[in-house]
Amino acid sequence: MSTIPIIEARFFSANEGRIELETRFKKRLRKLRCKRIPPEFLAPPDDVDAACDRPDVDPMDIIGISADDAARIQRRVKRILECRKAASGLEHLKSDDRERLEVLKDGARLISIRNEHHADELAAALHKDMPWMAPATEVVWHAARRSVREGCPGLRVPPLLLQGPPGISKSFFARRLGELLSAPTSVIEATGENASFGIVGSQRGWGGSCPGRLIETILQSRIANPVMIVDEVEKAGVAVSMKGHAFGLAEALLPLLEPLTATRWSCPYYQVKFDMSWVIWVLTSNDYRLLPEPLLSRCPPIRLRHLTLAELVAFVRREGAKRNLSETSIEAICEVLAHPSLRQHQPSLRIAIRLLQRAADLEQGPTLH
């Protein structure tokens, strides 16, 4: 994996504190003054160095550093520490928040695609599991191959908006993508989040302010391109402050979905800029017409269709084999899904998954006497 700088902040070594700086300046002053002393009045260098290295000896006792010299050194060290604090970009944070961000001082890793053959294998695995998601798989496939051709340090996928009927497992596709990439994956239910706060976090001063799921995922994994899934994005609510300011999820996502602004995205909670341009966004929607035009321009909808009965039966057979279900249970589920009474309804993957889970519970449950 490649490592990239992800936070616009400077972290200074803990071994460069006030005491360490003062000690270093005193030793430097001793060496400078020793050069001005005639050789006949100077003790052998080895003796001076050995004495200064002793923990019970103060270098000032040997080289005669005055109280004024010590005060000047202390003032200079204080000024250096103040400049470091201003240059860090973290002076407004509490100590525990600064420590939390320190895990990113050496950057964050990027999940990458080894070569174009690896990209082909990734797309083939996605298509084998979910052939009805072919339009979305094709976008990921071309993005993976493009990342290799352009020599990108990691996998870069444009934001995906999966538009399709309910029950075709759009979010399952995104989780499967994260699984194949071995990437950290976070699922946000837009209907259950408080506007944008669940993803990007809330500003300090709001009641219960906290970081969002996006920055928390990166801090925990130290991966710069996790898979972030926003399920049913068109159903997200809008929070309104006491001053009448509205905070909607779609509006909060706009700077994160635009590569130029995502490169220097400012976290509302930490108030520090991060490079979020590598994040893999997968948004799902049942009706994209409810979304604002600026969001649609950043991630055009990928139109998906209903499953066919043949695709649903094939999925049941694959998943049944993965769950070690008996052939009898698998065939029974396929017969239920193909029953004439269900022909008036579109095949649903949710129903199939529930039937598979029920069959697994029955087969693995205790024997009743």
Structural write-up:
- The protein is an alpha/beta fold and 369 residues long.
- The chain folds into three domains: 82 residues, no CATH class; 196 residues, 3-Layer(aba) Sandwich (Rossmann fold), CATH 3.40.50; 56 residues.
- Strands 4-5-10-3-11 form a five-stranded parallel sheet, sandwiched between helices. It has a two-stranded antiparallel ribbon with strand order 1-2. The protein has a two-stranded antiparallel ribbon with strand order 6-7.
- A hairpin with a 6-residue loop joins strand 8 and strand 9.
- Helix 14 packs antiparallel against helix 15.
- The radius of gyration is 30 Å and the shape is elongated.
- 29% of the residues are buried.
In short:
This protein has helices at residues 18-36, 45-53, 59-63, 67-88, 95-101, 116-129, 134-149, 170-181, 197-200, 213-221, 249-257, 259-262, 293-298, 309-322, 327-337, 349-364; strands at 2-4, 108-110, 160-163, 185-189, 227-231, 238-240, 246-248, 265-266, 273-274, 280-285, 301-303. The protein is an alpha/beta fold.
Largest sheet entry: 5 strands, parallel
Low-confidence runs: none
Beta-strand share of residues: 5-15%
> Rg, please?
30 Å
Helix content: 40-55%
Query: Whole-Å distance between the termini?
Result: 55 Å
Task: Give the domain tally.
Answer: 3
Structural class of the secondary elements? alpha/beta
Q: Report the total helices.
A: 16
CATH class of the largest domain: Alpha Beta
* Main sheet: strand order: 4-5-10-3-11
Q: Briefly note the CATH topology name of the largest domain.
A: Rossmann fold
- Strand tally is 11
Mean pLDDT over the full residue set? 84
CATH architecture of the largest domain, by name, is: 3-Layer(aba) Sandwich
- The CATH superfamily name of the largest domain is P-loop containing nucleotide triphosphate hydrolases
Identify the quaternary structure here: single chain
So what's the overall shape? elongated
Listing every helix as H and every strand as E from the N terminus to the C terminus, the arrangement reads: EHHHHHEHHEHEHHEEEHHEEEHEHHH
